[in-house]
């Protein structure tokens, strides 16, 4: 057995809620530079450093990371981390921690197992609710990650709290929920790609007795979930990132942002930053799901331990 044994008593919704937020923060700490590289590659061509009009600032994942370290320093890799952790504590707690509870609500009474439709509905529901609650933190995170691609004089925010205040003052409270609709679409898709795929792969491995309910099983299921989520969500993710990072008035709405992207970069533009997206989502899912499963077991063991 690799890792802690499954608890005899199933984890409560509160335990799952806490474990999901904590596990997502651990995963963010491990993979945040890849997320920053993904954002820089996705907005490339839209934000240009004025060295020459034809300069391509970033080339590939490693090239992006090395360029950032060389020109902005190592701290730039974690620009926006505070907002990112704030986002995960509110966002992941809802979309991941409440998934099983919502899944049971969609499962017909008396059913022996949960069907695919119930899982998909649960993924869409928790993903949409989580985005609605945590959108301001995502807007600030993306703005900070894109900040280093601008000249020093054009950087708008001095810190996380200043970013919230400045956006609310200059763009109105609605500015903090900028890009909510594409983000709901993205995270509903990602939630289905991640949670449903993880759920199905894990169930299949356990039912076929190919693996036991431990870390190797969680690793395989999480890796598959990360790849599936990246493939289906990358186009929405690119549009979401550009729209949320745009200055006021740059795009009239989400469709105009999508149209501008297609006219400028073609269909391939929808998969800008795919490699860092997969590296980030794949590694993020592995770290998060393994941490999530183990944290639930740690908490349940602590609760059941004699005083």
From TrEMBL:
Transmembrane segments: none annotated. One of its GO terms (molecular function) is proton transmembrane transporter activity. It is a multi-pass membrane protein. GO terms for biological process: adaptive thermogenesis; fatty acid metabolic process; lipid hydroperoxide transport; mitochondrial transmembrane transport; response to cold; response to superoxide. It is found in: Mitochondrion inner membrane. GO terms for cellular component: mitochondrial inner membrane. InterPro entries: MCP (IPR002067), MCP_dom_sf (IPR023395), MCP_transmembrane (IPR018108), Mito_Metabolite_Transporter (IPR050391). Belongs to the mitochondrial carrier (TC 2.A.29) family. This is Uncoupling protein. It comes from Gallus gallus (Chicken). The gene is UCP.
């Amino acid at each position: 057995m690799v890792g802690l044994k499954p608890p005899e008593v199933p984890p409560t919704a509160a335990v799952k809620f806490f474990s999901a937020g904590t596990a997502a923060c651990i995963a963010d700490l491990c993979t945040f530079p890849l997320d920053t590289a993904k954002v820089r590659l996705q907005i490339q061509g839209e934000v240009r450093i004025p060295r020459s009009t034809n300069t391509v600032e970033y080339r590939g994942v490693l090239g992006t990371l090395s360029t950032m370290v060389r020109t902005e320093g190592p701290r730039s890799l974690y620009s926006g981390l505070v907002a990112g952790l704030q986002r995960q504590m509110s966002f992941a707690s809802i979309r991941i921690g409440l998934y099983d509870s919502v899944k049971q609500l969609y499962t017909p009474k008396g059913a022996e197992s949960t069907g695919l439709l119930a899982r998909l509905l649960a993924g869409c529901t928790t993903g949409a609710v989580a985005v609605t609650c945590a959108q301001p933190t995502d807007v600030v995170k993306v703005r900070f990650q894109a900040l280093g691609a601008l000249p020093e004089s054009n950087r708008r925010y001095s810190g996380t709290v200043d970013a919230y205040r400045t956006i609310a003052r200059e763009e109105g409270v609605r500015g903090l929920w900028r890009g909510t609709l594409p983000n709901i679409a993205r995270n509903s898709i990602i939630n289905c790609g991640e949670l449903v795929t993880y759920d199905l792969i894990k169930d299949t491995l356990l039912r076929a007795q190919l693996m036991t309910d431990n870390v190797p099983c969680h690793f395989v299921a999480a890796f598959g979930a990360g790849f599936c989520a990246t493939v289906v969500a990358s186009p929405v993710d690119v549009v979401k990132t550009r729209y949320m990072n745009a200055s006021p008035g740059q795009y009239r709405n989400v469709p105009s942002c999508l149209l501008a992207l297609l006219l400028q970069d073609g269909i391939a533009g929808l998969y800008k930053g795919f490699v860092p997206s997969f590296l980030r989502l794949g590694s993020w899912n592995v770290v998060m799901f393994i941490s999530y499963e183990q944290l639930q077991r740690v908490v349940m063991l602590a609760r059941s331990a004699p005083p």
